[in-house]
Amino acid sequence: MRCVAETRYPHEVLGVVLSVRDGRLSALLWRRAEKPFVGRWALPGGILGADERLGTAVARHLARKVDIQEIAHLEQLETRSDPKRDPRGRVLATAYLGLVPAGAEPDLPDDTAWHPVDALPRTAFDHGSIAESGRARLRAKLSYTTIGYALAPDTFTISQLRDIYGAALGHEVSATNLQRVLLRRGVLVPTNSTVAPTRSGGRPAAVYRFRDRNLLVTNEFAAFRPGPA
Amino acid sequence: MRCVAETRYPHEVLGVVLSVRDGRLSALLWRRAEKPFVGRWALPGGILGADERLGTAVARHLARKVDIQEIAHLEQLETRSDPKRDPRGRVLATAYLGLVPAGAEPDLPDDTAWHPVDALPRTAFDHGSIAESGRARLRAKLSYTTIGYALAPDTFTISQLRDIYGAALGHEVSATNLQRVLLRRGVLVPTNSTVAPTRSGGRPAAVYRFRDRNLLVTNEFAAFRPGPA
DNA sequence: GCAAAAGTGTTACAATTACACCCATGC
DNA sequence: GCATGGGTGTAATTGTAACACTTTTGC
Known about the structure:
Shape of chain A: globular
CATH topology of the largest domain in chain A: Nucleoside Triphosphate Pyrophosphohydrolase
Mean pLDDT of chain A: 91
Oligomer: homodimer
């Protein structure tokens, strides 16, 4: 095989893995021990294998940082191509958005931790801005798809879901209205169980789950809907 | 430079260039004269240059098929990585969505033509499915952003805009409601001119234009809006 | 005058938000 | 009993769709 270096490029995959931890939307980052950017925090990822697809590659690399079973949703985000994004030389990077349910407590390597996305530490490369893209994608999709299923545990109370949506959206969400919107759209179904209140009292909370553990679009046309025909 | 072929990949860019022609949403395709896929229709594009960004590359390649000035909007769509997507060998492809206003009549090379996206001819590679992704992205954004500006001429009547939205969305759109929705959102501003009716008569139509020739999000939260605070 | 196309007024409908009020439990 | 969190009923608000009607032109 003739090798024309100028027209072939190293390609890496990166994961913006988001989850609500301690009430804040957080990203999974690991701390670099080597140059460049020693000590700075980076998105998990790695290089694309020879006969591998991008989605497969990102899942493979994420598995080294987090139990891959915990990732409830994974979708392609964008591809970065700035020739100077890596000081060592040109590397194309395709980023994916991954979501981990709140409540899951996957074991993490020592160099890896969750960081709230609105207070990221100093990041390596362009990873800070890629994480921001991931957050924007999540926020946009929360209101017109069922993407929230991937941030919530299997079963949950409305208050728990309210806190999750609030953390992801970055503003307060009313439990009352959240419940009704999701029930009307048919994405939420009640289980028959309830959860005992905490020591401070209160009525036992009903437990719900998402009807479907896949991404569904529930509000395709915000305007200009097709007629009844 | 040592060349490790297994970890470097050729990378191409592709453009899903859409425009409403003769009342139908159409994609710009060119007919292949060489193997593979001789005679089939392909998306315009080409390889990524050594120190080039993806967006720059796609603009450069599109310029060979269409007057680049006519492309009013260009955004990254997705990156395809199936190792078998090109029978000659592995090539990664990053697709962009480009929009050309209706009414623009750019000169096209002999091998290039507009094809309605709901009746595409036999396409080369995975280009048919990439074009479909482009159409889906456009449809989704039409109802909550001002992306329509890039499909419409500088100035237009509501009926013309109705036809453009109808073609892009794939269903009838009422001129009455289209006008009101866009006026209320403040994205449409009336000019003071009118257009004479056609020979079949009718009241002269008022001429409008978009307030802003950039992509704006007008309906960020379909639900779970932040409160007035 | 009549047909055709454009545009306006009004009503109807749907989805979401806001808020008052009732419910069930622990202490 | 009463504080606390959970949940329901109902109204208010907003946004969109439907449709009748008026306006302005060509013939």
